[in-house]
Amino acid sequence: MTDRLPPAPASPALELTALTKSYRNGPTALDDISLKIEQGSFCVVLGSSGSGKSTLLKCITGLVTPCRGEIRVKGRPMTRRNLRTIGMVHQDFGLSERLTSAQNVMAGAAAITPLWRILLQAYPLPVQRKACQLLARVGLTEAHANRRVKALSGGQKQRVGIARALITDPSLILADEPVASLDPRTSAEIMQLLKDAARERGAAVLCSLHQIDLARAYADRIIGLQGGHIIFDGPPAQLDRAALSAIFKAEDSGPHLKFAVA
Ligand SMILES: Nc1ncnc2c1ncn2[C@@H]1O[C@H](COP(=O)(O)OP(=O)(O)OP(=O)(O)O)[C@@H](O)[C@H]1O
């Protein structure tokens, strides 16, 4: 008889422990946040304006330095070097308007491309091929691929943004209000695309949203944030009226300011 050990459980795609951020002369935007996101899951951080959603995502990518806490991606402490294991989708698309769609997608591989190749727009052939495949995957044609981004619609721009986020085969995709500037029909298409494209690749998604209907329709799990605290964590079916009113209760407006009048 062979005594085989059971396989070690896979590390979570993302693990946050006691993450805390207080801005200087500002509020405590995140207060002792701990959570694990399993590989392949589609998680929505739902909260009103000022609840701490952007700060949470910015701490993970290193744009904001937390005051305390630990961030692990696939079991490894988050550093600049493993930033390439994360794909980012931005609210304002974060694309270079004067470059073509294909050049923008390839730019997502900048961290693994020699500088001279980036400056000359001479990306290696495998990167070029992959950019074309990804643009096709997000529903764009060859004509779109060769068009400057400034000549695309908002929905088309976000398709380019998703393709760019996928080019390094990330294990985790962070999407910060990815449909905030899009109409309802385009928003639904983009959310579905993000979910499907991530699932095909086994990537986990952490997506911040303030739209309840979109969170309900696309999330496997909803994390409700209010005043920098997690006040709900569960599947969409459990997001009842009480949970929603707790998540969207009016934020504390802070001390009243007095302005000196000259
Ligand atoms: N650089 C900063 N300096 C000081 N306070 C900040 C800074 N950035 C954010 N804040 C404050 O931290 C809190 C959380 O902000 P954050 O942007 O993370 O919220 P959010 O949920 O993403 O809001 P929105 O949906 O409006 O983008 C808010 O009270 C905000 O005013």
UniProtKB/TrEMBL annotation:
Q: A Gene Ontology MF term for this entry?
A: ABC-type phosphonate transporter activity
Query: May I have one GO cellular component term?
Result: membrane
Q: Which InterPro entries match?
A: AAA+_ATPase (IPR003593), ABC_transporter-like_ATP-bd (IPR003439), ABC_transporter-like_CS (IPR017871), ABC_transpr_PhnC (IPR012693), MetN_ABC_transporter-like (IPR050086), P-loop_NTPase (IPR027417)
Residues annotated as domain ABC transporter = 14-252
Keywords of this protein's UniProt record, alphabetized?
ATP-binding, Cell membrane, Membrane, Nucleotide-binding, Translocase, Transport
The protein's matches in Gene3D superfamilies, at most eight in alphabetical order, are given as: P-loop containing nucleotide triphosphate hydrolases
So which domain of life are we looking at?
A: Bacteria
For this protein, the record's PANTHER family field holds: AMINO ACID IMPORT ATP-BINDING PROTEIN, PHOSPHONATES IMPORT ATP-BINDING PROTEIN PHNC
Q: What is this protein called?
A: ABC transporter domain-containing protein
